[in-house]
Amino acid sequence: MHWGTWQVESREGEIVAVKPVPWDKNPSRIGQSLPDAVTSQTRIRRPAVRAGYLQHGPASREGRGKEPFVEVSWEVALDLLARELRSVKARCGNEAIYGGSYGWASAGRFHHAQSQLHRFLKGFGGYTASTNTYSSAAGERILPHILGPLSPLHRQHTHFSELARECQLFVAIGGLPLRNAQVNGGGANDHMLQYWLDKMQANGTRFINISPVRNDLSAVPDAEWLAIRPGTDTALLLALSYVLIAESLYDQAFVASHTVGFAPYRAYLLGEHDGVAKTPAWAAAITGLDAQRIADLAREMARHRTMVNISWSIQRARQGEQAYWATVALTALLGQLGTPGGGLGFGYACTNLAGAVRKAFSRPTLTRRGECGGQRYPGGAAVRYAAAPGRNL
User: Fold this and answer.
1) What is the pLDDT of residues 45-86, one digit of tens each?
2) Distance between CA atoms of 359 and 364, rounded to whole angstroms?
3) What domain range is 115 assigned to?
4) Is 26 a domain residue?
5) Residues labelled as active-site residues
6) What's the CA gap between 185 and 11, in Å, rounded?
7) Domain count across the chain
8) DSSP strand E in the chain: where?
9) Is the dihedral of CA 110, 152, 231, 273 positive or negative?
10) Is 318 exposed, middle or buried (0-12, 13-18, 19+ CB in 10 A)?
């Protein structure tokens, strides 16, 4: 399951207990809910249809959100669905069918609801799809233009064992919340975040939690907390870059050999075009942080082997992609990309996967049936389009 790997104890065909596998370093307590979840009264056990729709068909919309759902047999549910799909296709075409369902319906692959639904709708002639994810869509859109696709970057994070050996300063923008690292799409095999953070502390790594919430790094009691104002991370990142450039602390050789666009970025930070230098004092007024602490942090990052991690939560905001862009620029100035224990991360602790060792292997797959045949919209935009068809997204 998404929260871990468990040994199941059953009695007379019912689950009575689950025990974590012996190698799990810090099992999630959420897994203990499994026995009750199987028999819970809140579990959806069979298809259910809105009462008005069941009685009057799709024309009955007044009771949506208010009237009860009525359980029906699978035969009735499938007949209703098939009839409506044929009707929509005949009247409006396949583009009027939205292939929804998000990707967390199952920890397995064959039973992955999204894959099965999309495969079925492709066989029906196509559908309107969404692209990217609610988790990290802004990052997924911007990173291919400045560094590389997010998905392989996420799979190739520096492993925690190397961080424990080499990292001197870990700057966590958005924290490293243990609660998020309990889960992983497709299943979590070993909850190792607390274990490795303890190792890093024991080896002398210093942690800085840049977040409005102190317990976003509760796993490291001695972490310094910089209580930034929500949504202002980009201003902080720009000010840190300003200090590196203004005080000639950046890696000039790395910037010259591995980046493009330094001159206009430098001009922007120094305020040569808009008259606003992105100084620590400028950022302090926006972020609520102390200007001197911002300047000192930039100097510390330049002196030490530094890992800068930015959480997925930071880009879930208006213009959230700018913080990811600014993080890449900052770490490029530091010149530590690709160094042991240094560089940048996009989502340590956002799921159980980041920073873990994974052996790649080929898995069985369903036969692919081509593209969706309809339109594609970013995840959140598809919902807005459903509410206002034809609107410019």
Assistant:
1) 899 999 999 999 888 888 899 999 999 999 999 999 999 999
2) 16
3) 93-130
4) no
5) 102, 104
6) 29
7) 2
8) 6-11, 14-20, 48-50, 69-71, 127-131, 169-173, 206-210, 224-226, 306-310, 343-345, 373-378
9) negative
10) exposed
